[in-house]
C-alpha cells in the first residue's frame, strides 16, 4: 500500500551510477501528516453500537472527504487522503477494541507519524450522550481500547476526541450497554453527533488542538467534574 510518504532525499554528488556517494537518507517521522484512528469492533453486529462511535466518525470523515477506506495495512482498514489541506491517514483497527494498541503502534511506524500527530476518536461512558471533549493527554479513564494504546506505545501524550454516550438513566451494566444497538431515538440523534465529531477533527487539523478545545469543549449538564 502506498500511504503518503515523507520524501526520500538523495545525499552526495551526482557521481557515476553505483558510487558510494549515492545513498538514500532514511525517512524521518512526519511532522505534518495526521493519523486519525477511530476505535470500535469489526463486524456488522457491532456497527451501530455506542462502542463503535470512533469507527462511525472515521466513516463520516471518509465519506465527506472522499477518502476510500479499502486497504488493509498494519492490522487496520486504512485510507490516505487530505483534510483541510493536510495529509491524513484514516484508520479503523481490525482487532477488537481491547486490543487496539498493537495496530496503532504498527500504524505509527508504518506511516512514520509521531505521537503528537496521532488523534484517537472513541466513545466515553463518563460523558453525557452527544457531549464532545478534546484532550491532549491523560489517563484512559477506564476505556480499555485507550488503555491498550497507552500501554503499547508507551505514552499518554496523544490527542483524543471523546464522544459521550452516557444516557440520562443509570447504567447497571456498562459492558452490555456499550455493545447494545442504538435505539430509535439515539439513531435520530446520531447523524448530528457524527457531523459535530467530524467537524471537531477538521478543526484540530486546520487550527490546532488548543483552538479546537476552546471551541468544542463545552461542558454539558451532568458531565464529570474532575477530568484528568
Give a nutshell description of this structure.
By secondary structure, this protein is an alpha/beta fold.
Written description of the protein model:
The chain is α/β, with parallel strands linked by helices and 228 residues long. The protein has 6 helices and 9 strands, in the order E-E-E-H-E-E-E-H-E-E-H-E-H-H-H. The chain has helices at 53-65, 101-111, 144-153, 174-178, 184-207, 209-216, and strands spanning 10-11, 23-24, 34-38, 71-73, 76-83, 86-93, 118-128, 132-135, 159-166. The protein has a 7-stranded mixed sheet with strand order 4-5-6-3-7-9-8, sandwiched between helices. A hairpin with a 2-residue loop joins strand 5 and strand 6. It is globular and about 45 Å long. Mean pLDDT is 84; it is low at 4-30 and 219-228.
Ordered list of secondary-structure elements with their pairings:
Blueprint: E1 10-11, E2 23-24, E3 34-38, H1 53-65, E4 71-73, E5 76-83, E6 86-93, H2 101-111, E7 118-128, E8 132-135, H3 144-153, E9 159-166, H4 174-178, H5 184-207, H6 209-216
Parallel strand pairs: 3-6, 3-7, 7-9
Antiparallel strand pairs: 1-2, 4-5, 5-6, 8-9
Taking pLDDT < 50 over at least 5 consecutive residues as the criterion, the unreliable ranges are 4-30, 219-228
Structure annotation, total helices:
6
Amount of helix:
25-40%
Distance between the termini: 38 Å
What is the total tally of β strands?
A: 9
Question: Can you list the strand order of the major beta sheet?
Answer: 4-5-6-3-7-9-8
Describe the main β-sheet briefly.
7 strands, mixed
Radius of gyration: 19 Å
The helix/strand class is alpha/beta
Mean pLDDT, to the nearest integer, reads 84
> Which term fits the overall shape?
globular
Reading the helices and strands in chain order gives EEEHEEEHEEHEHHH
* Beta-strand content bin: 15-25%
Amino acid at each position: 500500500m502506498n500511504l503518503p510518504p515523507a520524501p526520500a532525499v538523495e545525499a552526495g554528488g551526482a557521481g557515476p551510477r553505483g558510487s558510494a556517494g549515492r545513498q538514500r537518507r532514511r525517512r524521518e517521522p512526519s511532522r505534518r501528516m495526521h493519523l486519525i484512528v477511530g476505535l470500535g469492533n469489526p463486524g456488522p453486529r457491532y456497527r451501530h453500537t455506542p462502542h463503535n462511535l470512533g469507527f462511525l466518525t472515521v466513516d463520516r470523515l471518509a465519506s465527506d472527504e472522499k477518502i476510500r477506506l479499502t486497504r488493509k495495512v498494519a492490522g487496520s482498514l486504512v485510507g490516505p487522503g487530505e483534510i483541510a489541506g493536510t495529509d491524513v491517514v484514516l484508520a479503523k483497527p481490525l482487532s477488537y477494541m481491547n486490543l487496539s494498541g498493537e495496530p496503532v503502534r504498527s500504524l505509527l511506524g508504518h506511516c512514520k507519524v509521531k505521537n503528537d500527530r496521532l488523534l484517537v476518536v472513541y466513545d466515553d461512558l463518563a460523558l453525557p450522550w452527544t457531549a464532545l471533549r478534546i484532550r491532549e493527554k491523560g489517563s484512559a479513564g477506564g476505556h480499555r481500547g485507550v488503555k491498550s494504546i497507552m500501554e503499547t506505545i508507551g505514552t499518554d501524550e496523544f490527542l483524543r476526541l471523546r464522544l459521550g454516550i452516557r444516557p440520562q438513566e443509570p447504567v447497571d451494566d456498562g459492558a452490555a450497554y456499550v455493545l447494545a444497538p442504538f435505539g430509535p431515538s439515539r439513531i435520530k440523534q446520531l447523524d448530528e453527533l457524527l457531523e459535530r465529531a467530524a467537524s471537531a477533527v477538521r478543526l484540530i487539523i486546520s487550527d490546532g488542538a488548543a483552538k479546537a478545545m476552546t471551541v468544542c469543549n463545552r461542558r454539558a449538564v451532568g458531565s464529570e467534574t474532575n477530568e484528568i
